[in-house]
Amino acid sequence: MADHDRPHVLMMSEITVDGKLTLKRGASSKILMKHMAPETEILLHQTRAECDAIMVGANTIRIDNSFLTVRLVEGKSPLRVIPNSRADIPPDANVLGSDARTVVAVSEAAPAERVARLRERGVDVVVAGASQVDLPELMRILKRDYGVSRMMIEGGPTLNWSMLNHRLVDEVRLIHLPFIVGGADTPSLVGGMHIETEKEMIRLSLKRYFMCGSNLVTEWNVLYGDACGGA
Questions:
Q1: Which distant-in-sequence residues (6+ apart) come within 8 Å of 221 by Cβ?
Q2: What is each CA distance from 50 to 45, 149, 166, 172, 178, in whole angstroms?
Q3: Which H/E stretch holds residue 220?
Q4: What integer pLDDT is reported at residue 2 of this predicted model?
Q5: pTM higher than 0.70, yes or no?
Q6: Burial (0-12, 13-18, 19+ Cβ within 10 Å), 83
């Protein structure tokens, strides 16, 4: 997909020293986010205000039940985008509220009655993909039909891996938390399938780093294809 056919995508996440997103599997990331510096919380909301859309996976919604709105700074809340192949997002999810516009992306296999219930809530439902949400197609729809030029993802490991695997992430911004939580099955920044060789590694280039309150923040460009020597 040509870059001009899709939004510019920033992946943003808090992360422990050992690369974890939560205390343990099934735990909300909000537990660790409570330990971010106040300045870093403001940075997160500033970033949301600078973006046209924000995307998280349906499992993150089930666990965190986030609002995904701009609250700590002045600015408009971005379009909320939730890939949810089966349209089985919880009916009490905060992202289904009227405080910001929401798009739920489903597959053709999503049951019609679930899709109808979402539309009754005032949610935009877009179909992209046969049995699973086709993320590249969803990116095209967001750019073409919703005018999304810049999008951030605050995803869990599955969405992060899927977006990177499809070469849909341009930048990564990490908020480093000074903790080690351990746990062999504790969710890390990127999940998905493991790689077989170093040639499959997704390479990054450090763009900037700075202290935000008591948190180190690093910013990276994601390198694909020729930009990383063909790796």
A1: 170, 171, 204, 205, 207
A2: 9, 11, 24, 15, 27
A3: strand 215-223
A4: 63
A5: yes
A6: buried
